[in-house]
Amino acid sequence: MDMQISSPNAVFHAVLAGLSEADRAVVDAVAEPAAMLATQAAAHWDFSLPAARVDEALGAKASDDARRGLIATWALSTVDRAAAAAMPDAVMSLYPFWLEKLASFLSQASGPYDADFWAKDVRFALALSVPGARSQVIDLSSPMGPGQVVRHVLGGWGFTPVLGYLKAGGRGTWLEVHTESRHLDDFNEEGWNRAWATAAEICRTRPDLMGMIGSSWFYDPPLTEISPRLAHLRLNPLNGGAFMVHQGPGEIHTQRAATASPTRKALIDSGQYTARSWLMVWPRKALIAWADARR
Ligand SMILES: CC(C)(COP(=O)(O)OP(=O)(O)OC[C@H]1O[C@@H](n2cnc3c(N)ncnc32)[C@H](O)[C@@H]1OP(=O)(O)O)[C@@H](O)C(=O)NCCC(=O)NCCS
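Above: the input record for the complex with coenzyme A. Below: its predicted structure, written as tokens.
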């Protein structure tokens, strides 16, 4: 299949045409009910719950080709779903890039569907997560209860988030950003600024949203010294009115922090550094003011 001349939609149709009769029947049968179940699960804190609901609808015997077929089916109407959700131009203009990447992934994939990619693709194809920049997706409905702020205080990390959380309006629906490891074109300061700006545009169109959150090891304060190239990830939001909530260490954070950087890996292995995850919380008023100031 020549990706240079095939439009994403032509590739999605080709993925469907390549399915066995049995897989095609499964895809056609579950596409609608599974989309509904995934959508109902989207507001849960568990990012992968929509994909788990789709797996339940598919049944234990479903093949990975059927999963790819389901994503291809939904991808044919992803743009319509995003338009129906009144997504701003900042989001809509990113779809050609993202759909081309998704088409390329689906047409070249075989074997097991990586669990993280599957969770991301279910959300993306159903427009439960939308593009924020070329390496960032934004979930449209993430919860943020007070528990994490309370644990931050009880852990002795200070009181700053209490005021920030209360000022932001407390419990509610937030946007949440995630990194797409399949295309890291925008994993740099300019790309992240684009993602924050896209989140601000979504907040403008959706007054019900509280702002933007993101959870990662790369917001950890010691990285300003250890990995200065990543310092903008924490400092730009902080300078724009965000606050940070301590989440703590964990195997997944250690593993991710050590993956690409020999410097961080050596510090972790020698016990001089413990990777910690932080929740970046950027309330809507401050986020929109930051975006306005950038224009
Ligand atoms: C998040 C991630 C994509 C960031 O990658 P990055 O922008 O290249 O930044 P890193 O700090 O990780 O850089 C890793 C190495 O690449 C090299 N590098 C990165 N940018 C460079 C540059 N501009 N010039 C020279 N070297 C560079 C360095 O050798 C660095 O190693 P060092 O810290 O020992 O100097 C990468 O760390 C990663 O893939 N992590 C695992 C997945 C992950 O954590 N995803 C986010 C989930 S929340």
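Notes for the reader.
Residues 221 and 234 are 8 Å apart (CA to CA).
Residues 8-128 form one domain.
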